[in-house]
Design goal:
With about 625 residues, the chain is of the alpha+beta class. It is built from 11 helices and 39 strands. The chain has an 8-stranded mixed β-sheet, with no helix packed on it. Strands 28-29-27-26-33-37-36-35 form an 8-stranded mixed β-sheet, covered by helices on one side. Strands 23-22-21-24-25 form a 5-stranded antiparallel β-sheet. The radius of gyration is 30 Å and the shape is globular. The N and C termini lie far apart (about 110 Å).
Amino acid sequence: MRKILFLTLLMSQTAWAQVEYQAGILLPALKENAHAIVRRHETTFTVKSAEEATQRIRTVVTVLDEQGDDHAKMVVGYDKLSRVTNLDGALYDASGKQIKKLKKADIDDYNTYTDYNLFDDNRVKSASFPKQPTYPYTVEFIIETTERNLMFYPTWIPQNEEHLAIEQATFTVNMPQGLTLRYKEMNLPTAGVQTPSSDGGKTYVWKLINCPAVEFEPLSPPAREQLPIVYTAPTDFEVQQYKGKITTWNDLGRFYHSLNDGRDRIPEDLRQHVIDLTKNETTTVGKVRKLYSFLQEQTRYVSIQLGIGGWQTIEAERVAVSKYGDCKALVNYTKALLKAAGVVAYPALVRAGDNESDILTDFPSFQFNHIILCVPNGRDTLFLECTDGHNPAGYVGDFTGSRHVLLILPDGSRLIKTPIYRSVDNLQQRKIALKLTEQGDATADVLTHYTGLQQDEYTSMLHQLNNNDQRSWLLKRIHIPAFELNTFAYKELSGPVPAVKESLGLMVRRWATVSGTRLFLPLNLMSALSPATPLTQPRKTPVDLGPNYNFEDSDTITYQLPKGYLPEYKIDPVNIESKFGQYTTQLAIDGDRVTYTRHVTMHAGRFPATAYTEWVDFRKKVAKADRVQMVFVKSN
C-alpha cells in the first residue's frame, strides 16, 4: 500500500513538473503582446557571511516566436571574486518533451578582453540552443555561483524587457544572524514577506504571478519605473580584507576614500613641472585648463578590472611613469596634478552612459560604474571627464551630465548634481546657399555650427573614423531623397561648451519639381522634423523628454531661382507655441532670391500622460510646416 502511494505521489510530482514545460496550457492573457513567457524564474541568494554568498537562478522560458529567440541563450559573467559552480540547461518542445540537454561541450568560456581593457580578470560562460524550426518551444537554465564580492547584492528583474510575460517568479534572500538586508521595492503588485529562519537569521521572499507583457509607450519613463524590480544591498560587507558598512551615502564615500587614500603622490620632477606649467595662471579655472590639456596630451585611457581593483586605483606615481590608467587612476592622477598646483579637487562617483538612468538617490548602494573629478570653485564648479582626450575642461556632455554624483570627501561625502545643458547650449545653426536650375536640380553650400550635446557625435566621429568612414557616416545622416556629396570638411572650435563647424558641398537632384510653367519648391532642405507616434489607446505613463530635448535649431536658406519665376501666392509666417517648445518660420522674396528662415526651440522635461495628445498635435503642426512648398510661375 505504501509503495502504491509513493508511486502515485512520484507520478503526480513528475506530471506537475512537466507542466511548466508545456506551452499548450498557457493563459491567453500572457500570450498577448508577448514574444516569450517566463514560466518559472527562481532566484535564491544565500548570504553565508559578510564576505561570501551563494546564488542559484533557475529560469524556464517558453519562446513564442522568432523575436523571443534570445531567451535560448544564457551568458554568465564571473571573475576571481565570483565562481560559476554550475551551468545546466535543457530544451523542450511544445508538448514539454525534452529535445536536448546541455553538455559541457556546449558551454563556451572566454575572457572579456577588449583593446581598451589592458588588465581584466572578467570572464564569461556562454551557452545556447540551436534555432528551432517550430514555435513555441521552452528552454530551461540553472546557474549556481559563489560570490565573494559582497559590495554588490543582486537586483531582481525577472521581467527585464518589454514583450515578456511572467507566469511565476520568486526571489528569496537568506540572511544569517547579525547581518541586515537593505532593499527597495519598485512597481510590485504585492510587497515581499519577511520571516525568521531556524538559524536565527531572516528569510525574505518576493513573488510575481501572471504578469502580462509590457509594451513601452513612446517617450515613456525608464524601464525601472515600469517593470517590477527589487534592489538589494548589504549593510556590513567585507571584500579582500576591506570591511565596510553602508547605511548612508556618507558611509559609501568613506569606504571608497579608505580604499584610495594616500595614492595621489607624484614624482618630485613632475611636481616641479606642474608648478612651472601653471606659474602664469592666476585663476583656478586657468590652472585646471592648463593641467587638463597636459593630461590629455600625456595619458591615455585603458580599463583595469582586477578584483577590488575595479574600485581601488593604482597609484599616481605609476600613472606618471606608464602614461595610462582607467577612470579611477586618471582621476586620481589629475587630482594629484591639481594638488601640486594648489587646486583642491575631489573624486565623484557617477552612473555614466548616454541612456543610463540616474541613481536611486534614496537607496545608498554601489550603483556607480564610473568616476569623474570635481573642482569646487564657487558658482563655477568644474567637473572633469579625465578619460576624454579632446573635449574642453568642464564639459561632460550627456555621458555624465544632468545626474547625481557622489562627491567623495574624507568625511561628509554627499550627492550633488552635474551640469544640465540648456537649449541655448545645444545649438544647430545652419546656413545654406542653394542655386536652382531650370530642371529643378540644385547645388548647395551648407555651413552648420553645432554646439554642446548637438556636437557630441560629430566630435566622436572625427576622433574615431578615418576620412572614408567619415564620409560614409555622413551620407547616412543626410536625409535628402537624391543627392551627391561633393565636398565635406570639419573644424573643432574651442570654448567652455565645445563646438564643431561643418562645411558641405551638395548636388541635389530634382529638389524642385517642374510642371508646365510652375516650379514647386520645398523650403526645408535638411532639418525637417517628423510627426510623433499617435495614440492608439489611452496613454498610461508620463511623457518623458530627456536632456537631449533641450536644443535650438536655426536654418537660413537662400534660394537662387532660375530667371523669370515669380511666386504664385504668398506664404505667411508660422508661429507654433506649446509647453514643449516654439517653432517659427518666415519667408522673404527679393527678385529671384528667396530666403527661408526657420527656428525651433525645444525644452526637456516630464509631463503628465494627458499631455501626450498635445505633444502629438505640436509635432504634427511642426511636421506639416516643415513640408511646406512654395509655388512659382514662369513669367512670359
